[in-house]
């Protein structure tokens, strides 16, 4: 246990912590309604924060570019006007496929201003995941760059019938039009229940799920920014997540801007020496990162950390996968403070369970439910759910439905959405335990989805692409435990008659998967197998593949097809 001296903590008086206080600290649109872009940018750009730095952009090479709230307002308005000129109206879907460059932020905020459903896509996705998501979300506009267009979009083999425009933000034509556009635009009136973002997430079966989020979620982002991330006036905040994943949008774009602080955006990928330099030189005071990154810093060695000092750093939090206790202790040693684990998922839209600044930290625990969040351990029964009254007992993590950032649907999958809710509780798909002090402990996923470097990967999406290869008869994909990235994607394939397993074929199939899926999703390992274990109804038994891979007990085999 790491005890805190609460009296010594810098907690601002009247800090908004509950949803009602958070609601009161927002402005609302001048004529009524609520829009995230207004709360994040416009109200600051029109007030005393206009010339304060909103985003400090660190390009992969070259000098930092500070972007003030006024500049962010103007650039996102230009973008909004360009989208409007292309017929984008409230509810239309705008996809953004960019690396972490300023235009990504202008496009997202501009899209929100016109009331679009905005969906940032991870730039390490290959053509397949991009096309699947654009089609599921009925994308009207895709915002990208020349390089990503050539490398990915141009290689999409399937039709994207709803897509009307592809904007390449670094093309000379786009730049000219952008400069000529008006830096002012009226923010469309949206209500708390209107769609703001589409975030795609993976399940065990079928296509990715498009989780629908709403403008009212900003209440949660405001509240959690304060209570879970300890944001205060004057902070320099760095969220290392890419906006292609929900953390990078909710906490890499919306939350710091709503709080009117300065947000660091680094274009480059992970590099231990660079990250320590950013923490030190940019005087980061609140840092939100992920276990994989922390483990990579740990691997880079204490020596490197000791070459830097972090006098500005006040609070460090982590999310996305289990944070091992050693990582929390490493924080004490290398950064001078514990790392505060917190838990949430795409569907919750915001942090639900956290180790907050004012709480004692139990290394290995995700913390306690935030004010206003009711969490329980549940067991699914035929007639509903049963809530676990005993401590330290494993069950499914459940949340009382109704928090402001709760997802409002899965695109086109009403039944799947409905099934997530039982007796007024949302069932998360995670297994957890609660201890006597009300701290929650992550146990594992209840399904087969894979968490690799904090990114959720659906085995079905990977298997489908492997099956497209002419040599592959069947494919089963699992997450294989890895000490740094949590899990790596491992595929088992059986071959069609006439093909022989061998190194050349393995490399060819790996190359095919990488080209279609992109580096973020493709398997790292492929093993050949003459047959794959299937249930009698024909489903690949991933659980069994995993147990065999890890040398674990094979469990209940009653549904296994003979001979597998
Ligand atoms: P995503 O929807 O991609 O954000 O992934 C959400 C999932 O990541 C959760 O359902 C958990 O399985 C996992 N996860 C998120 N935060 C944590 C955490 N602090 N500890 C353990 N697992 C986590």
Poorly predicted ranges? none
CATH class of the largest domain: Alpha Beta
The major sheet is characterized as: 9 strands, mixed
What name goes with the CATH superfamily of the largest domain? ANL, N-terminal domain
Strand order, largest beta sheet: 2-1-10-9-11-12-13-14-15
Percent of sequence in beta strands: 15-25%
Helix content: 25-40%
Strand elements, count: 26
Structural class: alpha/beta
**CATH topology category name of the largest domain:** Rossmann fold
- What ions, cofactors and ligands are bound? adenosine monophosphate
Calculate the mean pLDDT score and round it.
94
Description:
- The chain has 564 residues and is α/β, with parallel strands linked by helices.
- The protein folds into two domains: 6-371, Rossmann fold (3-Layer(aba) Sandwich); 448-550, 2-Layer Sandwich (GMP Synthetase, Chain A, domain 3).
- It contains 17 helices and 26 strands.
- It has a nine-stranded mixed β-sheet with strand order 2-1-10-9-11-12-13-14-15.
- Helix 1 (19-25) packs across helix 8, helix 2 runs parallel beside helix 9 (246-258) and helix 3 (69-85) packs across helix 7.
- The longest helix has 17 residues, at 69-85.
- The radius of gyration is 23 Å and the shape is globular.
- The mean pLDDT is 94.
- It binds adenosine monophosphate.
- The site of adenosine monophosphate has 18 residues, from strand 13, strand 20 and strand 21.
């Amino acid at each position: 246990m790491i005890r805190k001296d609460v009296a010594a903590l810098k907690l601002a008086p009247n800090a908004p912590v509950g949803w009602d206080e958070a609601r009161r600290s927002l402005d609302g649109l001048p004529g009524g309604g609520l829009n995230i872009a207004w709360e994040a940018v416009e109200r600051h750009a029109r007030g005393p924060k206009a010339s304060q730095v909103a985003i400090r952009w660190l390009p992969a090479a070259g000098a930092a570019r500070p972007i003030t709230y006024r500049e962010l307002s103007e650039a996102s308005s230009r973008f909004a006007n360009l989208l409007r000129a292309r017929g984008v109206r409230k509810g239309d879907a705008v996809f953004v496929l960019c690396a972490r460059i300023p235009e990504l932020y202008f496009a997202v905020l501009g899209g929100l201003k016109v009331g679009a459903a905005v969906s940032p896509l991870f730039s390490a996705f290959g053509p397949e995941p991009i096309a699947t998501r654009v089609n599921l979300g009925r994308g009207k506009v895709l915002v990208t760059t020349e390089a990503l267009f050539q490398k990915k979009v141009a290689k999409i083999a399937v039709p994207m019938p709803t897509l009307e425009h592809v904007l390449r933000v670094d093309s000379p034509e786009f730049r000219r039009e952008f400069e000529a556009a008006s830096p002012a635009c009226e923010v469309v009136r949206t209500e708390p229940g209107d769609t703001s973002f589409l975030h795609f997430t993976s399940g065990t079966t079928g296509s990715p799920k498009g989780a629908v989020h709403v403008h009212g979620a900003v209440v949660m982002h405001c509240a959690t920014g304060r209570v879970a991330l300890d944001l205060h006036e004057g902070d320099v905040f760095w969220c290392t997540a890419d906006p292609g994943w929900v953390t990078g949008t909710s906490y890499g774009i919306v939350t710091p801007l709503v709080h009117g602080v300065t947000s660091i955006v680094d274009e480059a990928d992970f590099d231990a020496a660079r990250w320590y330099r950013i923490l030190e030189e940019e005087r980061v005071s609140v840092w939100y990162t992920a276990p994989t990154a922390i483990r990579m810093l740990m691997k880079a060695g204490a020596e490197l950390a000791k070459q830097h000092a972090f006098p500005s750093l006040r609070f460090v939090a982590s999310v996305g996968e289990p944070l091992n206790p050693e990582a929390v202790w490493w924080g004490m040693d290398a950064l001078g403070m514990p790392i505060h684990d917190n838990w949430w998922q795409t569907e919750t839209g915001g942090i639900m369970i956290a180790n907050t600044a004012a709480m004692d930290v139990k290394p290995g625990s995700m913390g306690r439910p935030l004010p206003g969040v009711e969490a329980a351990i549940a067991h699914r029964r035929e007639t509903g759910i049963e809530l676990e009254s005993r401590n330290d007992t494993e069950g499914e993590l459940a949340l009382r439905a109704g928090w402001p950032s709760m997802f409002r649907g899965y695109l086109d999958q009403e039944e799947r959405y409905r099934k997530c809710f039982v007796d007024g509780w949302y069932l998360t798909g995670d297994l957890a335990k609660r201890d006597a002090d009300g701290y929650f402990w992550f146990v594992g996923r209840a399904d087969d989805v894979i968490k690799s470097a904090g990114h959720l990967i659906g085995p079905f999406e990977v298997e489908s692409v492997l099956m497209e290869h002419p040599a592959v008869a069947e494919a089963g994909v699992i997450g294989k435990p890895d000490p740094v990235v949590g899990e790596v994607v491992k595929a088992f394939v059986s071959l069609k008659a006439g093909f022989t397993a061998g190194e050349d074929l393995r490399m060819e199939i790996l190359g095919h998967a990488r080209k279609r899926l992109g580096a973020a999703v493709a398997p790292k390992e492929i093993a050949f197998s003459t047959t794959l274990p299937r249930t009698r109804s024909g489903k690949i038994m991933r659980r069994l593949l995993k147990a065999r891979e890890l040398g674990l007990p094979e469990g209940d085999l009653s549904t296994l097809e003979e001979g597998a």
